[in-house]
Amino acid sequence: GWVRALVLKGRQQGISTYVAARYYHRTSMQRGNRALIIAHEQTASDNLFEMVRRYHKANPLRPSIQASNAKELKFGALGSGYRVSTAGTKDTGRGGTFQLAHASEYGFWPNADGHSAGLAQTVADLPGTEIIKESTANGVGNAFHIEWQQAESGQGDYIPHFVPWFWPAAYRPP
Protein backbone atom coordinates (compact mmCIF):
# COMPACT_ATOMS: atom_id res chain seq x y z
CA GLY A 1 0.00 0.00 0.00
CA TRP A 2 0.98 3.53 0.70
CA VAL A 3 2.45 5.24 3.76
CA ARG A 4 0.62 8.01 5.58
CA ALA A 5 2.47 8.69 8.84
CA LEU A 6 2.05 11.36 11.47
CA VAL A 7 5.04 11.58 13.84
CA LEU A 8 4.92 13.47 17.14
CA LYS A 9 8.48 13.75 18.38
CA GLY A 10 10.89 15.39 20.76
CA ARG A 11 13.56 17.66 19.31
CA GLN A 12 16.62 16.18 17.60
CA GLN A 13 15.27 12.63 17.40
CA GLY A 14 16.60 11.99 13.89
CA ILE A 15 13.21 11.70 12.19
CA SER A 16 13.99 14.29 9.50
CA THR A 17 17.37 12.67 8.89
CA TYR A 18 15.69 9.28 8.53
CA VAL A 19 13.03 10.57 6.13
CA ALA A 20 15.62 12.44 4.05
CA ALA A 21 17.77 9.29 3.77
CA ARG A 22 14.73 7.11 2.99
CA TYR A 23 13.56 9.44 0.25
CA TYR A 24 17.05 9.98 -1.15
CA HIS A 25 17.42 6.22 -1.49
CA ARG A 26 14.07 5.92 -3.26
CA THR A 27 14.77 8.80 -5.67
CA SER A 28 18.39 7.90 -6.44
CA MET A 29 17.90 4.15 -6.84
CA GLN A 30 14.47 3.82 -8.47
CA ARG A 31 12.88 5.26 -11.57
CA GLY A 32 10.09 7.80 -11.46
CA ASN A 33 10.19 8.78 -7.80
CA ARG A 34 9.87 12.48 -7.05
CA ALA A 35 10.20 13.69 -3.47
CA LEU A 36 9.01 16.97 -1.98
CA ILE A 37 10.38 18.37 1.28
CA ILE A 38 8.42 21.17 2.93
CA ALA A 39 9.58 22.72 6.19
CA HIS A 40 8.08 25.46 8.32
CA GLU A 41 10.74 28.07 7.49
CA GLN A 42 13.37 28.66 4.83
CA THR A 43 16.36 27.89 7.05
CA ALA A 44 14.92 24.50 7.99
CA SER A 45 14.12 23.71 4.33
CA ASP A 46 17.68 24.63 3.35
CA ASN A 47 19.12 22.42 6.13
CA LEU A 48 17.03 19.43 5.07
CA PHE A 49 18.01 19.87 1.43
CA GLU A 50 21.68 20.20 2.38
CA MET A 51 21.39 16.81 4.06
CA VAL A 52 20.17 15.32 0.78
CA ARG A 53 23.10 16.89 -1.07
CA ARG A 54 25.52 15.35 1.45
CA TYR A 55 23.93 11.94 0.88
CA HIS A 56 24.35 12.40 -2.85
CA LYS A 57 27.97 13.52 -2.59
CA ALA A 58 28.84 10.51 -0.38
CA ASN A 59 26.94 7.98 -2.50
CA PRO A 60 29.42 5.85 -4.52
CA LEU A 61 26.50 4.73 -6.73
CA ARG A 62 25.08 8.21 -7.22
CA PRO A 63 23.15 8.74 -10.42
CA SER A 64 24.03 11.56 -12.78
CA ILE A 65 22.36 14.89 -12.20
CA GLN A 66 20.26 16.54 -14.89
CA ALA A 67 19.69 19.68 -12.83
CA SER A 68 20.82 20.99 -9.47
CA ASN A 69 19.99 24.31 -7.88
CA ALA A 70 18.93 25.74 -4.54
CA LYS A 71 15.48 24.12 -4.73
CA GLU A 72 15.83 20.99 -6.84
CA LEU A 73 18.00 17.96 -7.55
CA LYS A 74 16.99 15.98 -10.66
CA PHE A 75 18.28 12.57 -11.66
CA GLY A 76 17.62 12.74 -15.39
CA ALA A 77 18.22 9.14 -16.43
CA LEU A 78 15.91 7.93 -13.66
CA GLY A 79 13.19 10.54 -14.08
CA SER A 80 13.46 11.02 -10.31
CA GLY A 81 14.42 13.87 -8.06
CA TYR A 82 14.10 15.97 -4.98
CA ARG A 83 12.42 19.36 -4.57
CA VAL A 84 12.38 21.60 -1.51
CA SER A 85 9.87 24.24 -0.49
CA THR A 86 8.80 26.32 2.49
CA ALA A 87 5.38 26.36 4.12
CA GLY A 88 5.24 30.16 4.17
CA THR A 89 3.03 30.60 1.12
CA LYS A 90 -0.53 29.40 0.66
CA ASP A 91 0.07 27.37 -2.51
CA THR A 92 3.14 25.40 -1.42
CA GLY A 93 2.83 21.73 -2.34
CA ARG A 94 0.46 22.30 -5.24
CA GLY A 95 1.18 22.21 -8.93
CA GLY A 96 3.35 19.12 -9.06
CA THR A 97 3.13 15.36 -8.98
CA PHE A 98 5.14 13.62 -6.29
CA GLN A 99 5.31 10.11 -4.93
CA LEU A 100 7.00 11.10 -1.66
CA ALA A 101 6.34 14.09 0.61
CA HIS A 102 8.02 15.06 3.87
CA ALA A 103 6.21 17.73 5.91
CA SER A 104 8.73 18.84 8.53
CA GLU A 105 7.65 20.66 11.71
CA TYR A 106 4.09 20.51 10.42
CA GLY A 107 2.72 21.86 13.72
CA PHE A 108 4.38 25.21 12.97
CA TRP A 109 3.06 25.71 9.43
CA PRO A 110 1.03 28.93 9.13
CA ASN A 111 -1.21 27.56 6.34
CA ALA A 112 -1.25 23.89 7.31
CA ASP A 113 -4.90 23.22 6.44
CA GLY A 114 -4.46 24.39 2.84
CA HIS A 115 -1.10 22.68 2.49
CA SER A 116 -2.49 19.39 3.74
CA ALA A 117 -5.20 19.49 1.09
CA GLY A 118 -2.54 20.29 -1.53
CA LEU A 119 -0.34 17.37 -0.44
CA ALA A 120 -3.30 15.01 -0.65
CA GLN A 121 -3.82 16.12 -4.25
CA THR A 122 -0.18 16.06 -5.35
CA VAL A 123 0.61 12.61 -3.85
CA ALA A 124 -1.85 10.03 -5.14
CA ASP A 125 -3.24 7.21 -3.01
CA LEU A 126 -1.27 4.61 -4.93
CA PRO A 127 1.06 1.81 -3.82
CA GLY A 128 4.56 3.09 -3.13
CA THR A 129 3.55 6.67 -2.30
CA GLU A 130 4.35 8.25 1.06
CA ILE A 131 3.42 11.33 3.04
CA ILE A 132 5.23 11.69 6.35
CA LYS A 133 4.23 14.65 8.51
CA GLU A 134 6.41 15.15 11.57
CA SER A 135 6.55 17.80 14.26
CA THR A 136 7.37 18.66 17.80
CA ALA A 137 4.27 19.69 19.73
CA ASN A 138 3.04 23.26 19.29
CA GLY A 139 0.00 23.62 21.52
CA VAL A 140 -3.59 22.63 20.87
CA GLY A 141 -6.03 23.46 18.10
CA ASN A 142 -3.56 23.67 15.21
CA ALA A 143 -3.75 21.37 12.17
CA PHE A 144 -1.10 18.96 13.49
CA HIS A 145 -2.88 18.60 16.84
CA ILE A 146 -6.25 18.03 15.17
CA GLU A 147 -4.82 15.48 12.71
CA TRP A 148 -2.97 13.75 15.56
CA GLN A 149 -6.17 13.36 17.56
CA GLN A 150 -7.97 12.00 14.51
CA ALA A 151 -5.17 9.53 13.79
CA GLU A 152 -5.11 8.36 17.41
CA SER A 153 -8.84 7.66 17.25
CA GLY A 154 -8.44 5.69 14.01
CA GLN A 155 -9.97 8.30 11.71
CA GLY A 156 -8.43 8.95 8.29
CA ASP A 157 -5.44 7.41 6.53
CA TYR A 158 -2.66 8.57 8.87
CA ILE A 159 -1.05 6.29 11.45
CA PRO A 160 0.25 8.10 14.57
CA HIS A 161 3.82 7.46 15.77
CA PHE A 162 5.06 8.93 19.05
CA VAL A 163 8.82 9.35 19.59
CA PRO A 164 9.36 10.72 23.11
CA TRP A 165 12.18 13.06 24.04
CA PHE A 166 13.68 10.65 26.57
CA TRP A 167 14.49 7.78 24.19
CA PRO A 168 18.00 9.03 23.33
CA ALA A 169 20.37 8.40 26.24
CA ALA A 170 21.87 11.89 25.80
CA TYR A 171 18.56 13.45 26.95
CA ARG A 172 18.30 11.35 30.14
CA PRO A 173 20.06 12.31 33.34
CA PRO A 174 22.65 9.80 34.58
Q: Major sheet, described briefly?
A: 8 strands, mixed
Strand content: 15-25%
* Derived structural class: alpha/beta
Uncertain ranges: none
Shape: globular
Q: What is the total tally of β strands?
A: 8
Give the strand order, joined by hyphens, for the main sheet. 3-4-5-2-6-7-1-8
Note the total helix count: 4
Order of helices and strands: EHEHEEEEHEHE
- Provide the gyration radius in Å: 16 Å
Helical fraction equals: 25-40%
Task: Tell me the span between the first and last alpha carbons.
Answer: 42 Å
Overall pLDDT metric: 88
**Quaternary status of these chains?**
single chain
Protein described:
- The protein has helices at 15-29, 42-58, 112-122, 143-152; strands spanning 3-9, 34-39, 67-68, 72-75, 80-86, 100-104, 130-135, 159-163.
- The model has no long low-confidence stretch (mean pLDDT 88).
- Helix 1 (15-29) packs across helix 2 (42-58).
- The longest helix has 17 residues, at 42-58.
- The N and C termini lie far apart (42 Å).
- It contains four helices and eight strands.
- By secondary structure, the chain is α/β, with parallel strands linked by helices.
- The relative contact order is 0.24.
- The chain has an eight-stranded mixed sheet, with helices on both faces.
- Strand 4 (72-75) and strand 5 (80-86) form a beta hairpin.
